[in-house]
Amino acid sequence: MPPTVAVATVQPAPSASVLSLPGETAAWYESTIYARVNGYVGKWFVDIGDHVEEGQVLVTIQTPELDARLVAARARLNAAKAEVQVRQAEADFARTTHERWKNSPKGVVSEQEREDKKAGFESAKAKVSAALSQVNLAEAEVERLAADERFKQVRAPFTGTIVQRRIDIGNLVTAGSTSGNTPLYRMTRNDPIRVFVDAPQAVSESMKVGTPVQIHVNAVQNRPFDGRITRTARAVDTRARTLRVEIDIPNHDDVLLPGLYVRVGFHLDRMGTAQVPAAALVARADGPQVAVVAGDDTVQFHDVSIARDDGKTVDLASGVAPGDRVILNISSQIAAGQKVRPSAEVSHLAGDVPAAAQRSR
Question: What is the pTM of this model?
Answer without folding.
Answer: 0.66
